[in-house]
Write a structure and sequence with these properties.
Number of domains: 1
Structural class: mainly alpha
Mean pLDDT: 84
Pfam families: EMC3_TMCO1
Number of strands: 2
Subcellular location: Membrane
Radius of gyration: 22 Å
Main location: membrane
Number of helices: 8
Largest sheet: 2 strands, antiparallel
Strand order of the largest sheet: 1-2
Keywords: Membrane, Transmembrane, Transmembrane helix
Helix content: over 70%
GO cellular component, one term: membrane
């Protein structure tokens, strides 16, 4: 059983190497990860666009917002409070509907996301492809400006990671990011950009 699993994983890595190794070898890790994050974000955003009814999602958000405004006013209006109590069941139903709509794309995208993260670790992780090619590499993909590092709580995440992870690359500085931290930032930025471009609320 383990041998079959190992064969599947090796085949996956070899296939991904054929697709992305030209990027990995010829482009700086920060830019390569940005490109990969953009591709993944595009696939996820496109899935959201195709699988989620955007008009219905907008209607639900508008309805919930109106209800929240009523709740704030209700503290000074007993009659309005009675009206809110009648609406609560409806609001709970549409909130559940919105949650189901939001999770729908994840059914189709969570496996590719995990697969991409596994591949990035295979390439940029300790003893990964890049480290094997360049043993002196310290695992740093990008250095952030000090103020940005603090705003993004990088020192805290370094400390938190140190509690659960031992071995591998050491922490070079509070401004240094490895492949995972940089991928998360790139993924959030590209996802936000693409959602605006594609008109996803």
């Amino acid at each position: 059983m383990f041998e079959i699993f190992r064969f599947i994983v090796d085949t996956y890595y070899k296939t991904m190497d054929m697709l992305f190794m030209p990027i990995v070898i010829n482009i700086h890790p920060a830019l390569a990860i940005l490109i990969i994050a953009f591709i993944v974000s595009f696939i996820i955003t496109l899935a959201t666009k195709l699988l989620v009814d955007q008009e219905r999602m907008e209607e639900i958000k508008k309805r919930i917002k109106e209800f929240q405004v009523k709740v704030r006013k209700a503290s000074k209006d007993p009659e309005l409070m009675k009206e809110i109590e009648k609406e609560q069941e409806e609001i709970m139903k549409i909130q559940m509907e919105m949650m189901k709509m939001s999770f729908k794309p994840m059914i189709y995208t969570w496996v590719p996301i995990i697969a991409i993260i596994a591949y990035l670790k295979h390439v940029y992780g300790y003893n990964g492809v890049l480290h094997t090619l360049n043993p002196s590499w310290n695992g740093v993909v990008v250095y952030l400006p000090t103020i940005l590092s603090k705003l993004l709580l990088v020192p805290f995440f370094h400390w938190l990671g140190g509690l659960f992870y031992r071995g591998g690359f050491g922490i070079v500085s509070d401004e240094a990011l490895g492949w995972l931290g940089w991928y998360v930032i790139c993924s959030m930025a590209t996802s936000t950009f693409l959602r605006k471009v594609m008109g996803i609320k």
